[in-house]
Every structure is written in C-alpha cells, then in structure tokens.
Amino acid sequence: MLDWSLDGLDEARRKLADVVRPINDRRIGEHAAETLEPIAEDARRLVSVRSGALHDSILVAPTIEFTGETEGQSVSVGVLEAGGDGVFWGHFVEFGTVHWPGEPFLTPAVYRNIDLIFTALGKRLGEDMIGAL
C-alpha cells in the first residue's frame, strides 16, 4: 500500500484566494473602460458625420448609462442616448432600415480591436493577480 501526504494545501488555498481577490466586477470594469476606448475611437472615425451628434454619442460608459440595468459593474461601448433626448437612431445607421442601407461603424470597430482588447484586458488582470502575490 502506498502512503503519502500533501503538506501546504491550506496555505496554497489561501494564496490562491489572495491572488483572485483583486479580480472582481468593479476592477474588471475599470480595466474594461480603459481597454474599450480604442473601439470607441475607431467607431468615431468610421461613422458618417452629418450633424456630429452620432459621432459625439459614441462613448465608453458603465452599462447602466446605456440600458438602465443596475446589476453588476459592467462597462459598454456604443451610442449613448443621453437620457432619451440624444441619438436614438444610431442603430438605424449601423444596420440600415427597409429604405436605407446600413453604414456599419461600431461592428467593424469591434472586429478591428478585439485581439487588442483581450490582450490588454488579460495583461491588466494578470498584473493585478501578480501584484497580489
């Protein structure tokens, strides 16, 4: 019969908990706000500018600003309606209507930056975890 023991497991669990502790919704939201800005910049560059209202409404903001949803600490990039009196028609420009073809600006901006976003977000979260060691 093989007899063995594993020492230090409790200490390893505590260390792992310490490493993961700084990674929470709020911290991820802070990092996301920084890393999503290139998407907003590209979308502003790609959007057709007539009055400038749509261009100026492309923002990175807490999701609650876009949807009113209060759960979590998520961050979004998109067209902010500014309390209902702003640009409500941004999706018509992006996707088109029955009578007008779409002029995508946000979707291409996301696809152009997706690798950069995941790399930057992963790097920042990794730095948080290493800093907790």
Automatic annotation (TrEMBL):
Organism: Alteriqipengyuania lutimaris
Top-level taxon in the UniProt lineage: Bacteria
Protein name, as recorded: HK97 gp10 family phage protein
Origin organism lineage: Bacteria, Pseudomonadati, Pseudomonadota, Alphaproteobacteria, Sphingomonadales
